[in-house]
Amino acid sequence: MTTATKPNHIGRKIARIRELRGMKQETLAEELGISQQSVSHLEQSETLDDERIEKIAKVLGVSKEAIGNFSEEAILNIIGNTYTVDNSSAVNYGCTINPLEKLLESYEENKKLYERLVQAEKDKVLYLEELLKKK
């Protein structure tokens, strides 16, 4: 029994990254200065030259290596290993943060910033009063 390995199809990887970024072929084409049909042709190509991959990677906001090493299985593994949902409750979206805690943290941070601002104003008033006394 032999197993055939999938070819390293660079066009499919580009198409999948583009889709994951929420970008349409037309947008990628416009950014690259080519037609949408050219992008379609690129995404059907099994290989591309390094210079073209570099330009595409820049537009997609990833590195050239990220395109070359892109793996759908790796993405699924990352999602599977980091996102868990407890099915014991009726509605659970897998939220890992407590919004109320975040709100309280934000409130405390704002309070500290306000106190620093008040202290800076007090220091400024003291400094100006000292300048007036010297005159």
Automatic annotation (TrEMBL):
Q: Which Pfam families match?
A: HTH_3 (PF01381)
Q: Known PROSITE patterns for this protein?
A: HTH_CROC1
- Is Amino-acid biosynthesis one of the keywords? no
InterPro entries, per this entry? Cro/C1-type_HTH (IPR001387), Lambda_DNA-bd_dom_sf (IPR010982)
**Residues in HTH cro/C1-type domain copies:** 14-67
Q: Determine if Coiled coil is one of this entry's keywords.
A: yes
The entry's keywords: Coiled coil
Question: Coiled-coil intervals in this record?
Answer: 97-130
What's this protein's name? Helix-turn-helix domain-containing protein
